[in-house]
Specification:
Blueprint: H1 19-33, H2 42-63, H3 71-97
Helix pairs in contact: 2-3
């Protein structure tokens, strides 16, 4: 049995006919036709603010000594910081990558 050489698909590297430029053009057209910002909407800004607050507010409270005498408050603030960190990574960063 003779093995045939397969044709290799190659994309144009630059210029009007390149794959990258074609995709970028289609994406820009999509956002322009729907009058959507390619960056973020109000819901995304709100989600980002909430997740950052879940991290930074407990952090400030921990650093200032708010929970120095109560272990339950200390662990609760650590828990909120963990939620904020995971929320930033899995929610905000994930959406930004799309």
């Amino acid at each position: 049995m003779k093995v045939q050489k397969l044709d290799i698909v190659r994309f144009a590297s630059k210029g009007r006919e390149s794959f990258y430029d074609a995709i970028i053009s289609k994406v820009h057209t999509y956002f322009e036709m729907r009058n959507i910002s390619p960056y973020a909407n109000k819901e995304m800004w709100l989600k980002t603010a909430v997740m950052m607050s879940l991290y930074f507010i407990p952090y400030v409270l921990l650093v200032t000594g708010f929970a120095a005498n109560n272990a339950w408050i200390l662990f609760g603030l650590w828990f909120l910081m963990g939620w904020g960190t995971s929320g930033l990574g899995t929610s905000v960063m994930h959406d930004a990558n799309h």
